[in-house]
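hey all, quick one before standup. I had two proteins in the batch that finished overnight and I want to keep them in one place so we stop losing track of which output belongs to which input. First protein below, input sequence then structure tokens straight from the run.
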Amino acid sequence: MNGIVCSIVPYGGLMVPVCRNVLPPDFSIPCNRRLVKAELYDKKNMKKTEVKTGQKYGELTVIAPTGRRGYNGEYWVCVCSCGTVKEIMSFDLRSGRVKSCGQGQHRHRDYTGVRRGDLIGVRKTDKTVDHYGMKRPVWEWRCKCGRVVEKAVYEIAPGKSTCCPECAREKKRETARLNNLKSRVDGTNMTKSQLRGVLEGRLTSRNRSGIRGVSWAKNANKWTARGFKDGKPVHLGYFANIEDAAKARQEFLNKNLIIPDDFK
């Protein structure tokens, strides 16, 4: 008798309705639209075969069942040719949707001599790093400065570090220096904030004298004044009282400080 017979069967601790077609007798799917669609796709595009221990699907070799089921089949423990162990659903194995651990582009490619920024691949090490549950191999890379670093391929992808840590710190310092030069006011070797602080007499948190550029020298037991010229500190001498030190610094500023006309 041809047709579909529905029954209630235990499934994962629950009673689930299962529809079974009499022809063919081995075609059985749960009463769920998503599962029906997947099972029909499975029957149309591939043979109805069961996953068994030892079978190979692409780069994967089936080891054992996990005893855990997904929405469309049982999960099986599989090992990839690169050594990665993953749990994969039986439908994905039989349909050919999954043929490797998913990281083949990082594992099977030889990066020896491959340039990534300032780094050149030297050799693959025996080390691995965990990345979102995947074990990625670690490679040795030689920087243009001659230093050798160990990094996984994903760590030197575009947008990430493409040099050794020492070169990265040097680049960061150089970038900060260039940005500082760009922000300086022409002819003063000071940024706008620094120049505005000098003109307004703004005090720093370490100032104890109440006058910018004037401090107490313990070694001489006198007041001392200093200024800046071409980005370098200039000592203006020692003074017995604070008024003379402040006057000397103000004269130094009037003589050496050039304020552009367009400064605001």
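OK second protein, same deal, sequence then tokens:
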Amino acid sequence: MDFSYMLTATSDSAIDFAILLIRLFIGPCFIVHALGKLGVVGTGNMDGFASWLEDLGVPFAGVQARMAMLSELVGGALLTVGLLTRPACLVLVGTMVVAGKLGHRGAGYLITNDPPGAEYTINLAAIAFAVFVTGPGSISLDALLF
């Protein structure tokens, strides 16, 4: 038995399946966070999010809050179904970089820190960037339509 093959071999179908799994789990994660900003899930709402951004010194906090929510909602939905995947991933990466730099400023890496660190936003940005690099895979609307 060739153990090196077991450790290193892959196939196009395995990669496509892995990308699909990533999209099906990470896309809804972004959507849920957007719904939290809308007050649909969790205890947050748009006014609270905008107020928090204002406290952080973000200019036009109400507009920025809505832009962040829309990027998570639309970007997450597009990522999930694999439509306009690469542009959606760029928007999501940008949103997570801003969230990490502003919302978790000075808190370190670990999300268990008090206040929470940027671990979660960094990881979401890295995953979205990885999908940007690989593309949506063959099990996607992008592959079907384009």
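Flagging for whoever picks this up: The chain has one domain: 13-136. The chain has seven helices and no strands.
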